[in-house]
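pasting input
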Amino acid sequence: MYSHLEQRLLNEWQREFPLEPKPYALMAEKLGMSESDVIGMLNELKEQGAISRIGAVVKPGSIGASTLAAMAVPQQQLEKVADRISAYPEVNHNYERDHRFNLWFVVTAPDEDALTRVLDTIEHECELPVMSLPMIDSYHIDLGFDLRFSSPVLEVQA
Amino acid sequence: MKPVQIENEDRRLLLQLEPGLPLVPRPYAEVGAALGMTEDEVLSRLGRLIASGVIRRFGVVVRHHEVGYKANAMVVWDVPDDRLATAASHLSAKPCVTLCYQRPRRLPEWPYNLFSMIHGTSEATVRQQIAALGEESPLVEIDHDVLFSRRRFKQKGAHYGPCRPSLVNREVA
């Protein structure tokens, strides 16, 4: 489990990260620890994989084109096809899901043409059709996530 | 979604930030140095991008699985178009729903037009949450399907910049 300070680092700055020259110093002040300890703890959480990054979640379509793509892959080929798709730098999420469409991945590119080219290349390389489902509207985009460390739900989790 | 026009300098800044804000005492100065911008300019551009909604949130991006939310399901709904907005705002208000997007149907094989993502500590918890959602008035009798995630082959931040040609145009096997 995470220490109390780690939990606070994970939870309290998912939004409204300080736009100040020394953001980690401000966080340190709030947490009652030193700036270098905040930086060290964030580095550790990043290495452990708990934090993917500190950064911007951008409105889709504002700096490029993106889509959610799905494929129905014969089970015995799934791992091979998934590895090929993950190798594309344009692919950022790639998951197996329990459905006939069993491989789901997100593709981003500088513009629509480049996105189409990547999808075509994937189709060609994998010899399987890709179903592209670009976003039409977002009603609720990733606004961060209250991890509720204090709730009993997480405590029973191994 | 319609592409939004943003200034080239803002675009460069967002691309530079893709790997994440550096973990150094003056991170905005370091980001600026790579772009030939001052720390002040980086901060004011980020402030404007947040205010205008291009940046939907700026902060710590947590990987749910690693912090104990082991189960995630994509629940997809086939909502009649005239009820889409109602169903979507109902779903979006639920704490267990982390994303809610409209996407196109691809008939006949894909009839679903509303996508929601549900994270929970276990598959059982997530199933209970989905069952409860399906009984609520705007969603009752709406055909839906549940796609639990199994193996995660890749998860990282988006990369919108140009990729190395050797990777894009690599030989087709």
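fyi The first strand of chain A starts at residue 51 and ends at 58.
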